Structures are given as structure tokens and as C-alpha cells.
Amino acid sequence: MHIPFLRRLGAIAMCSIVMAACTSNPSKDVAEEEQPLSPAAIHKIALIRVLNPVELTAENRGGPLPLLGAVGWIAQRHINANRGQFLEQVFRNQAFLPGDELTNALLAELRDKGYSIEYLRTVPRDLEDPSDILFDAIQTDADAFLVVELDEMGIYSGVTSTKFMPRLNVDVELLGRIDQSEVFSQSIEYGVDADEHNDEEIPADPKYAYGSFGEAVEHQTDLIEGFRRGIGAIAASIVRQLRERGVDAGPVPAITAGLSGHAAHDDGQASNDSP
Questions:
Q1: One domain, residues 45 and 20
Q2: What is the pTM of this model?
Q3: Could you say which of 37, 135, 201, 261 would form a disulfide bridge with 139 (CB–CB 3.0 to 4.6 Å)?
Q4: Which stretch is the leader sequence (predicted)?
């Protein structure tokens, strides 16, 4: 007589257990793990060395060749490629390594603002795609990684322009160490692509505009000076934006040079003033 009642009682108890399991802490823990790292929780930043751009570009979109159709377009493309290679030779002549110079500028800006920094000169990278950093293999006690990539670099003359202007565009990311969650992300344009003057767009001084590619490479010292001005302005903008977003300096400034504890891809950069 009492067995059906006990069975119903058991079923009710089982449902209660299942419902409690569905609303218990594990799902809450997962939700908490998915929360991005707060800027206020970052007390130490690991700065990864900035690599040199894969290639330099020298584009002229206002020349007469593209008006000749496909043949003219192909000819102009060939000229642009040769000019890009010549620009690389100019950089070598001037011992100008933009990746290292941007790294040095960032270290100086971060140090000046009192940030606690660990500098990672080499990090593990994917063998097929060196731009792919293997974050999980990096040994560091920093709270976040600061990753800066030189996206585009060279000189450019637009369709309606008679001047060649410097172009230096970078991508910036601040990523949480544990899960690489994005804390801050920004693209910054210096030179010809900057239409306004703010932290994302930084115009170049008009004195770094040249009437032809030949004139630009004839004034190699001034040409490199224009890029160095851009590098300094970009580094200052990055650190300023970090502070504006609540990533404040740590209580005890410290710069630590060191390597990750794993096999690392050789970044292939060297200079007399390497970080």
C-alpha cells in the first residue's frame, strides 16, 4: 500500500537533486572564468619584443601607368615592389631597425610612467607562422602580455597627391596571461593614413613629404627621422591609452630583461641598441 507513495517520494527527491545540480556552483564558476581580466587587476605587464615589418612598401597610386589598364597596373606594381626593396636597403644603410626602436620607445615610456615590466626578448612562436605567439608556453608572472605588431610601413603617394608621405601603422593588444582574453586592442596610424590628430591617428610633419620617390631616398637621414618621430609618438599614445583605460602603473617600478623558459623562435633582429 505504501510502495507507490514511496516511489513518488523518491522521484520528487531525484528531481530536486537534478535541479539543484543544474543551478549549482559549476556553471557559476564557468561564468566567472569567462569574465575578461579587469584593467585594474593588472599590476605587471610582459612586453613582447616588436618584430620588424615583413616587408616595406613604396606605393604610387597617382602615376600615369595605371591609366593604361592591366598592363600599366602590372608595370606599376613591379616598380612599387622594386622601390620597396630599395627602401629596405635604405633602412640597412641607416642601421634602422624599426621593431627594436619601437620596443625601446615602449620600454622608455612604460618605465617613465612607473609601470612594472617584464621584457620578453624572445618568445615561443609557431614555426610556420612566426607572428603566431605560443602564449601558453611562456613562463612569466606578469598579469598581461603587451603585443605590438608593425602592420604596414613604407612611403605612399595617393591618387590625388603629388607627395610621398611616410606610412607607419601598428596593431596593439593587451592580453590576459591566463587565457589571453582581450583587455585592450587598438590600431594606430601614423603618416599618410591619419586624417585627424588623436591617439589613433597621428599625422606626420609636412616636412617629411617628398615630391618623388627619388627625392625621398636622397634625403635618407630626414626620411628615417620622420619614421623615428612616428615611433616615439606611437609609443607615447599606447601608454597614454593604457592609463586612460585604467591600466595603472604598479606600486614598484621594475624593468626585468629575460627570456621565456622554453624553446623560442629567434626573432632575427639585432642592433647595437637592442633592448
A1: no
A2: 0.77
A3: 261
A4: 1-20
